[in-house]
Amino acid sequence: MTGQSETLDKYDLVILATGYKRNPFTTVLKQLEPILETGPAGEQFCVDRKYRLAFLPGKVRRDAGIWLQGCCESTHGLSDSLLSILSVRSSELLDAILSSSKRSEQFAKL
User: Fold this and answer.
1) Residue 63 lies in a domain
2) Residues 29-36: contacts with CB within 8 Å, 24+ apart?
3) Neighbours of 47 (CB within 10 A)
4) Residue 92 counted as domain residue
5) In a structure prediction context, what are the per-residue pLDDT tens digits for the chain, which is 110 residues long?
6) Is residue 2 part of a domain?
């Protein structure tokens, strides 16, 4: 009467998947693991509020840095991967990179 039909089929296995693991950067950073801090909740890498990858103390120069974008959902929340705030996040990253550069210039003057 409603136009709907019902079919019964047998299957050995049914998989319902709704997510994926976003970690394309892990293979690129693999060789740096010995000098990188791990995250407080067991994350593979520690990323600060300004998206900068945390190195172990004394392992790299103070002005050295790697910034991650779009792959920090575990530390920065769901909005990290949203395109709608990309311009704001890009501005924050640029500010962080430039302030790191200015700090190195200040250290050079000392």
Assistant:
1) yes
2) 29/53, 29/66, 35/59, 35/60
3) 21
4) yes
5) 688 888 888 888 887 777 666 666 788 888 999 999 987 777 778 888 888 899 999 999 887 888 887 777 666 767 676 777 778 888 888 888 888 766 555 545 54
6) no
Question: Does residue 6 sit within a domain?
Answer: no
- Give the pLDDT confidence score for residue 74 in this predicted structure: 66
Long-range (24+ apart) CB contacts under 8 A made by 86-92 are 89/51, 92/50, 92/51
How many domains are contained in the chain? 1
Interatomic CA distance for residues 47 and 36, integer angstroms: 10
DSSP structure string for 4-71: --------S-----------THHHHHGGGGGGBPPPTTS-SS-B-TTSBBPBPTTSS-TT---B--S-
Domain that holds residue 78: 26-109
